[in-house]
Amino acid sequence: MNQLAAALRQLRTETGLSLAGLATKTPYSKSSWERYLNGKTLPPREAVEALCHLAGEPVGRCVALWEIAEAEESGRGAKRTAAGSKAPATSPQPTVAAPPPTPSPPPPLRLPLPLPHQRGVITLAVLASVCAVAVTAVVLALLLIPDPRTSAPLSPTAATTATTIGSGCHGATCEGRSPMAMRCAAQPDTVARHRTATGAWMELRHSRECGTTWARTWGGRIGDRIEMTVPGRTEAAHAAQVGNAMDAESYVYTLMAATGPGTVVRACFQPAAKAGAAPGRKECFDGRVH
Known about the structure:
Number of helices: 7
Distance between the termini: 39 Å
């Protein structure tokens, strides 16, 4: 379970959400997320999948870790049951002299029942088959998990290639729609990245499956504003703003613009104005869709 909890903590960092933020965006409470992220309780599979979707990451790796943790939990429960069972105590029986044998009719013919040692052999064979299936499942799950010594950790800028649930739109039908709602943010490529003078980060993200691009920001302040445009296309201009403390703790996305290979996309960042001061300098950068 330690591997699963570590992966969930990385995903939570990637979302930029606090425990309270996770509670507002999922059906699980703040205290439940605290137990899941610290490995105190095995989370439901649905909670693992929900956190993957919030982080814009594929669910395959974490679901494999969850299946291993769930198998371990089941195994520990079986061991505790076996360890806790004891043979009932028996009391000594008094010795009684046997009566003299008397003639009796032959017993009726009955089918032979398995002897005690035979029943034990059958039980062991069944248990061995079940264990073999469980071990095979665990080995297959381990083969799906990347080696942490050779794979990069999860990060908000990591591009993935895992297969995800089908998107809800493509190309022109995605224009002006949310990348999260249309399931386009699960495996995007990072087209360009920029750190602003205020310390906030911006990225241009592109979904090959949806054929769209959008901008996102994190680490900013309430009132910061971002824009994403496709030069020469006025209908492909989309903006978003950090509106509250919850936004400031997570990602803020623009709506999507339909883009193809070679399209040049521009993103701009307008920092929030400080009290009694003019707005900060607007920063822009370009990226080309590959």
